[in-house]
Design a protein that fits this description.
The complex is a heterodimer of chains A (about 475) and B (about 450).
Chain A: H1 5-8, H2 45-56, H3 79-85, H4 88-91, H5 103-120, E1 124-126, H6 132-149, E2 156-160, H7 165-173, E3 177-181, H8 191-197, E4 202-208, H9 220-229, E5 233-237, H10 250-253, E6 257-259, E7 280-282, E8 294-298, E9 301-305, H11 322-358, E10 374-376, H12 388-397, E11 404-405, E12 415-417, H13 425-445, H14 447-452, H15 464-469
Parallel strand pairs in A: 2-3, 2-4, 4-5, 5-6
Antiparallel strand pairs in A: 1-7, 6-7, 8-9, 10-12, 11-12
Chain B: H1 8-18, H2 48-59, E1 66-67, H3 80-86, H4 89-92, H5 104-121, E2 125-126, H6 133-148, E3 152-156, H7 161-170, E4 177-181, H8 191-197, E5 202-209, H9 219-226, E6 232-237, E7 255-259, E8 275-279, E9 292-296, E10 302-306, H10 313-316, H11 329-340, H12 343-366, E11 371-373, E12 384-389, H13 393-402, E13 405-406, E14 409-410, H14 411-420, E15 433-437, H15 444-456
Parallel strand pairs in B: 1-13, 3-4, 3-5, 5-6, 6-7
Antiparallel strand pairs in B: 2-8, 7-8, 9-10, 11-12, 12-15, 14-15
The chains are: A alpha/beta (about 475), B alpha/beta (about 450).
């Protein structure tokens, strides 16, 4: 069994050491001094290298396998992004350096803001937010502040039941109440149903377009009209923007405010759960409320403007996740307008190709066409008490990361697949063949194999119930 | 560049299978008048070689300086091993570890990270990381409000001003009342101010140590006072300082948060870094963010999973303890690798070197004519100290910059920015004050050179 760091600890020389060239003068008063023992591991550098390298090998990652995780846009993370982000002239900068010594940084941030405006049809962007949910939260604070500024009391946000969980959590976090909206079986919104719950208290509706079933919201012009007639705002959750770059723009569809996940659409790596970046874009009437500081251009010089009296304030220390912002900008400069449109076309082509191969075998609740992702509803095919969880674990045995499962909540036993533009036809074919074989054949002929899965991973199926019942959250 | 991998033949076959003739037909579902006709005006299409030269040019407009500036972001040594491990694509190209059996690398790493943060701070339960220290302080305030059902938060004016701003933003639409505690003339939080503002409605007392001015607070005493009304004591700490100074666990803090940049991340303009949060056991079910737990597989082998998930947004939606999803996992991995390699003595020595170098610089600078310590010569500080000068502050930094040195932070300009945002007036009294920062990265030679230039001005 693989050891933990504390179990590797010996009396050896630890990996790192430093010396002082001014001697040690570090006496501090007893009442301020640490007396607690540390119990930090004592491990040689060679052993640490092995420990962490071997740990890395226990991960399925985009660099080792197809990662068809729906709504997560696991596209290739170009190596040139990483290389440029490692330049000393980026990594070794202090955020409080004089502006004339960080003009390159500001130029990149300003440039990305401008490109995101063009791509989305919004008027202004803020890059300060550190993740998608952080962008949602900022946006909802902006919405609240806007209504306050025009002296309207609007306390509720409409969130469709097909939305990401973060939408509701962010809205509550920002002080709103949630009004749920039941969507149709393909995840779309009926304007008539929306109308019924559009009261004067509604501040905004949060929509994901394409929605989490991979369907484009056909009624969006009508939805936009009735929402705005009600004096409410339209919010675009950009999690699925990868489907429509260069094709349609949220700004043109009538959206007033949106967030983008740079770590999805714009190829920055997920890092096993961050860091990310969640820029917020707004139409010009919401600009005064964006977080400070704002990056502005004065002649040939870039400056930071803090004089924004109506701003919601600051969401994060310093200027945001600059290293992530930089990688996204490199990506945009590598592709340009044509390349970006090609991304969406390939992503949608890949998803539709997979869907076409699945559609005669497995139920697809959203119909025969999709945008960049789609959801399978395989429940009717499940025999012998097999569940989607078993299918997911069996896929791991076949060398694939599993798709998103049990989401969206409106589809029972959902399997949500997003191939992205990255994958080749060969990869897609092999995956489709495997999944059909598992769902159609193995559930019937060899259900035990599915129940026993995974067997090819470093550990067998893990007991999550036990983990939550008797939490062990650190070394003993 | 083109990062897709289909050739024309594949494309044709794919279109045939779908039953359409052209890629454009894929977008037929979109209402016609929404489909954009004009091509986006986004420059690009560069090759890898062109990108390197394009971004080298932009990068050359930035200057790497010898830093004597801190204020939340610090130039510390990053061991080679850290770069090697966070550079493993199996870590950086993985997603949040939803499929536990295929993500044991990330999950065990987070478990080890949580363990190391607990060992360092003396508290019970750490989460998997937050965005940064500023948002971690804000999340701590929200956690305290949630648990206590009280609505007043006392915050030291020695808290980093940008953290204050973020707390203000996060609590904007809540009913919570924020009260800022004064700083006395010795640079520490005024105990009388804490005592007089504390009441039964106080959910939490938030104190940073070392505070914004570098001074180590008497956390033990402040914690004892805070507990008189059963308020939660929230410590905002620099994790490196815990190599020498008393831990949150020892002074009975309920929550400790802070900035993880000092643990193995470069300064990177202040992002990305990571924030950490560690709490007493009683609070673990109320904590925001991912948490990894140990469990067993069906053969009894040890393994790791995301746990206590019923706190989280993807399960509880609007009833979640937080909306956080993506956090700062890769920076936390850097923190984990960083903390693994020192051993107890090495880590303590690292903190001691930081103290020693800062003291060496302090002693040099205070002996110069026209420079004197703002808070007396005996206050205990970690990396940073405040010096009041009779010389022209702007000229000091201009001359240092000419010598490729990032000089101390001018607290007076910084504070006026804050005042513009309606932050506490106590920070206004810093005319002609400079916040110097010295880490283990600064050599004796560089410090002597700094002092020589200051002397000449």
């Amino acid at each position: 069994m693989k050891k933990l760091l504390n179990e590797l600890s010996t009396e050896c020389c630890p990996a790192y050491s430093l010396e002082s060239d001014v001697g040690i003068d570090a006496q501090v008063p007893e009442n301020l001094k640490r007396s607690l023992s540390f119990n930090l591991p004592n491990v040689a550098e060679s052993d640490l290298l092995r420990h962490f390298t071997n740990l890395s090998r226990k991960n399925y990652a985009l660099s080792t396998t197809f990662y068809p995780l729906g709504s997560c846009t696991m596209k290739y993370n170009p190596l040139i992004n990483e290389r440029i982000a490692k330049f000393d002239n980026f990594t070794k900068l202090h955020p409080y350096q004089n502006l004339e010594t960080i003009q390159g940084v500001l130029e990149i941030m300003y440039g990305l803001e401008k490109d995101l405006c063009e791509i989305s049809g919004m008027d202004c962007f803020s890059l300060q937010q550190a993740a998608g949910a952080h962008g949602e939260f900022a946006s909802l604070l902006i919405i609240a502040k806007y209504f306050k500024s025009i002296k309207q009391k609007r306390t509720k946000i409409i969130v469709p039941d097909s939305a990401h969980g973060t939408n509701s959590a962010s809205a509550v976090f920002a002080g709103f109440e949630i009004v749920p909206l039941k969507s149709e079986s393909n995840g779309s919104i009926l304007p008539e149903k929306l109308k019924e719950i559009l009261t004067p208290e509604i501040a905004a509706i949060m929509l994901t377009v394409p929605n989490t079933l991979g369907t484009f919201e056909k009624n969006i012009p009508e939805i936009s009209r009735i929402v705005h007639e009600n004096g409410s705002l339209l919010y675009y959750d950009g999690a699925n923007l990868n489907a429509v770059i260069g094709v349609v723009r949220p700004g043109d569809m009538g959206f007033d405010i949106m967030h983008i996940n740079l770590h999805k659409t714009f190829s920055t790596p997920h890092g096993g759960g961050g860091p990310g970046s969640g820029p917020v874009g707004v139409k010009v009437f919401l600009e005064p409320f964006l977080p400070v500081p704002r990056i502005e251009r004065k002649g040939t010089e870039f400056i930071l403007n803090y004089e924004k009296p109506e701003s919601i304030g600051r969401l994060k220390a310093f200027l945001g996740n600059f290293s992530v912002i930089l990688k996204a900008y490199v990506y945009i400069k590598s592709l340009g307008a044509k390349g970006l449109k090609n991304v969406s076309e390939q992503a949608v082509l890949n998803a539709n190709y997979m869907l076409a191969r699945f559609r005669d075998k497995i139920n697809v609740p959203a119909g025969n066409r999709c945008m960049h992702e789609f959801v399978l509803a395989p429940k009717a095919l499940y025999k012998n008490s097999v569940r989607t969880l078993d299918i997911a674990k069996r896929l791991l045995d076949c060398g694939y990361y599993a798709p998103t499962v049990y989401f969206p909540l409106i589809v029972e036993e959902a399997i949500m697949i997003e191939p992205t533009e990255t994958e080749s036809k060969e990869t897609l074919d092999a995956f489709v063949d495997t999944l059909i074989k598992i769902i159609v054949d193995e559930t019937l002929l060899d259900p035990q194999k599915l129940k026993d899965a995974p067997v090819n991973t470093n550990v067998g199926r893990l007991n999550e119930v036990e983990a939550a019942r008797n939490p062990v959250l650190r070394w003993k | 560049m083109n990062y897709t991998s289909q050739n024309q033949k594949d494309k044709k076959e794919m279109l045939d299978t779908i039953g359409i003739r052209d890629v454009d037909e894929l977008f037929d579902v979109i209402p016609k008048d929404l489909l954009k006709v004009r091509e986006l005006n986004v420059a690009g299409g560069k090759t890898e070689q062109e990108l390197l030269s394009y971004f080298s040019d932009i990068a050359s407009k930035n200057k790497v300086l010898t830093s004597f500036r801190g204020a939340g972001v610090y130039d510390h040594f990053v061991p080679s091993l850290v770069g090697e491990i966070i550079g493993r694509s199996e870590f950086w190209t993985a997603y949040t570890p939803y499929q536990a059996e295929a993500s044991q690398g990330t999950l065990q790493m987070i478990f080890e990270y949580q363990s190391l943060i607990c060992a360092l701070t003396g508290l019970d339960t750490s989460n998997a990381s937050l965005y940064d220290a500023a948002t971690a302080v804000a999340e701590a305030a929200l956690l305290a409000l949630r648990v206590s059902k009280k609505n007043k938060i006392l915050i030291s004016s020695g808290l980093h001003p940008e953290y204050m701003q973020v707390v203000k933003t996060y609590l904007k639409n809540s009913v919570a009342e924020l009260v800022f505690l004064d700083i006395c003339c010795d640079g520490t939080v005024e105990k009388e101010s804490l005592d007089s503002n504390l009441d039964k409605n106080t959910a939490a007392v938030i104190i940073q140590s070392p505070n914004y001015f570098g001074i180590v607070e008497d956390m033990q005493t402040l914690s004892i006072i805070s507990k008189k009304e059963n308020s939660l004591f929230v410590a905002v700490i620099n994790p490196l300082s815990l190599g020498v100074f008393k831990t949150p666990g020892e002074y009975n803090a309920d929550i400790a948060v802070g900035e993880g940049q000092v643990l193995g991340s470069f300064m990177n303009m202040g992002g990305s870094t990571f924030g950490f949060m560690v709490v007493k056991k009683a609070l673990e079910w109320k904590m925001p963010g991912r948490i990894v737990g140990q469990t067993i597989d069906k053969h009894g082998n040890r393994g790791f999973v995301l746990t206590l998930q019923s706190r989280e947004q993807h399960v509880r939606r609007e009833k979640a303890t937080s909306n956080i999803c993506t956090n700062a996992s890769l920076n936390a991995l850097a923190g984990c690798v960083f903390l693994s390699g020192w051993g107890d003595c090495g880590f303590k020595k690292l903190a001691e070197i930081n103290i020693s170098k800062a003291r060496y610089a302090f002693n040099k600078i205070k002996s110069l004519e026209g420079f004197k310590p703002k808070f007396g010569k005996d206050k205990v500080f970690f990396n940073e100290f405040v010096i009041e000068t009779q010389k022209d502050v702007n000229r000091i930094n201009d001359v240092l910059l000419e010598n490729k040195i990032l000089g101390p932070l001018d607290l007076s300009t910084h504070c006026s920015t804050l005042t513009a945002l309606g932050l506490p007036e106590t920070q206004e009294n810093f005319k002609n004050c400079l916040l110097f920062c010295v880490t283990e990265q600064r050599t004796k030679c560089e410090i002597d050179e700094l002092a020589r230039i200051l002397y000449k001005i």
